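SEQUENCE, STRUCTURE TOKENS:
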Amino acid sequence: MPLDITARDIQQEAKQHGWPWSIAKGFDAFCPISSIVLKKNILNPHDLNLSLKVNGKLRQFGNTSQLIFPVQSIISYISKIMTLEKGDLILTGTPEGVQSLKKGDYLEAELEGYCHLKVFVQEN
């Protein structure tokens, strides 16, 4: 499970200028990844709870049933554009509740029943 981090200030400036804003996601440590969960171990990919706590408080919660497109459709579409290989990650977005992080924040992301990721924010 990856934890997708974005520098919103850089993203907003890029959007205002019509520039690509992917640089707002490209900083060191912006996509920490949990242990790998194999497809064969997931009972139902269309009903997985995902959550993010910041300093012990629930900030984001969602379920894969809320995705605009089913998992298979996303994989099918992407694989028509590029070759997907073992180990590739597909990031699909984030549940509502996006807010700023600050130095010292403690993040806990969970794919309920499968994996848990803990991150300590060391820089702003």
User: Anything to note?
Assistant: The chain is about 15% helix and 20% strand. The radius of gyration is 15 Å. The chain has a mean pLDDT of 88.
